[in-house]
Amino acid sequence: MQWAVATYDTAFGYVSAHGAPLIDLLDPRPDERIIDLGCGTGGMTVEIASRGAEVLGIDGSVEMVNTARSEHPNLSFAVGDAHDFSTGDQYDAVVSNSALHWMTRDPSAVISRVREALRPGGRFVAEMGGAGNCADLITAVQTAWRVFGLPEPELPWYFPTPGQYAARLEDAGFTVRLMEFFDRPTRLAECPDGAADWVRLYAPELIAEVPPEVAGPVLDKVNELAAPALRRESGWMADYVRLRFAAVR
Ligand code: BEZ
User: What is the best residue among 206, 236, 240, 242 to mutate for testing ligand 1's pocket, by most ligand atoms within 8 Å of CB?
Assistant: First the structure.
């Protein structure tokens, strides 16, 4: 996934806006050592650091990490793939917001890496898209692709049920202390062209596979199909569904 960093910072305003309950769940203490996994440009990393913890932000995108470093020069960031990162030391907690659903190659490998990074008793606290996340948006995409005779799009996300993710955590040796599963309709403030913009922003690889001459009409069809469920007088909404959990090594 190639991120447009400037758009990420504005479009993911909701990440920091909704990050507060996650940080409260994490409850970072002064002098704790914490990893922010999938830190993006460091918006949550800086919040955690402001509570006195020592935080290392890790992200797979060089562009994100470069931006994080220039915006937060006093904090530590590293480029790393969550599927195979390793740390010399063991940390008190790993936290992750709106990132685990992008780590599709092997979710259990990510969980194993997190476990290795934690001391015994260390916490893994995260929020991610859960089963049914963006269902109306995704159905509109799949239907539009079908209408235009395009191959079924391969979606770049993993949205597990609470049971599926809890099983992976337990298989890796975690004790699950909390698993929440809830709807969180979210305003698409940075998508004036609605669902079409959402696809452009979050799934550009899907559009890259569409012949250029039909890309516009396909995205118009996505908007037409998604509008009844997601367009309000006040603007477009995304039908987000969240998993929020806390587990202990
Ligand atoms: C999410 O945060 O749930 C999400 C955002 C963009 C694409 C897919 C999921």
Answer: 240
CATH superfamily of 5-133+157-187+239-248: Vaccinia Virus protein VP39 (3.40.50.150)
CA of 156 to the centre of ligand 1 (A): 10
What string of H, E and C letters represents the secondary structure of 16-80?
Answer: HHCHHHHHHHHCCCCCCEEEEECCCCCHHHHHHHCCCCEEEEEECCHHHHHHHHHHCCCCEEEEC
pTM metric for this prediction:
0.90
DSSP state of 183: E
Asked if pLDDT for residue 100 goes beyond 70, the answer is yes
Work out the number of other CB atoms within 10 angstroms of the CB of residue 85: 18
The tokens of 243 are what? Answer: 């998993």
Q: What is the pLDDT of residues 115-140, one digit of tens each?
A: 999 999 999 999 999 999 999 999 99
